[in-house]
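Why do we care about 3D structure at all? Because function follows from shape, and shape follows, mostly, from sequence. That is the central idea of this module. The next example makes it concrete: a single protein chain, its amino acid sequence, and then its structure expressed as tokens.
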Amino acid sequence: MNKKSLPHIITAVSFVVFIVLGLASTATTSATSRKQPALDSATAYWQRGQENYKNGNFDLAVEDFTEVIRRSPNYAPVYNLRAWVYAYHLKTNFDQAIADADQALKLSPNEANYLDTRGWAYLGKGDYDRAIADFNEALRINPNLQASIEGLEKARQGQQQQSGQRLAQSATVQPAQATSQYWTGNGGRGMRLGILGRVHTT
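And the structure:
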């Protein structure tokens, strides 16, 4: 190795190390900046959670709402809003969203918004029957609840698609079963014709 080139190599390596460390430091600072300071009351967490929600910081809103629940476990609106964030915005953790909506309804029965929230959670899970039931009940209480009108339409569409898929699957499976029974039934003489063409419907 040319000794004259050694300082340049050392300089280049040092520069790369500096860049890597700088990026790591930036990433750490960014992650740290996402940490929220502790607050001293459920009310403060509730207010900050609503601000995070309005600003689209849904993960941070969930953190705040969870802390509100820990401090004030009998406050129905916070269960509902955390469920709504999960079901409608994040579209994840649907089982927790349903549990939250259940608790909100336990604390405040017959609240249309809470039924609507649970309907969206069921919709996200693909449980269209329960979603439709919740949206219908919400609209019985508040016929002008737009979210339930929208959700009901989506749930009915999902239900129709699901029924169509089941019918298509039955139409594929049943002939194969019928053929097997045709050749094996009644001594192999193919007398079991009653099942041919039968399609299971729901």
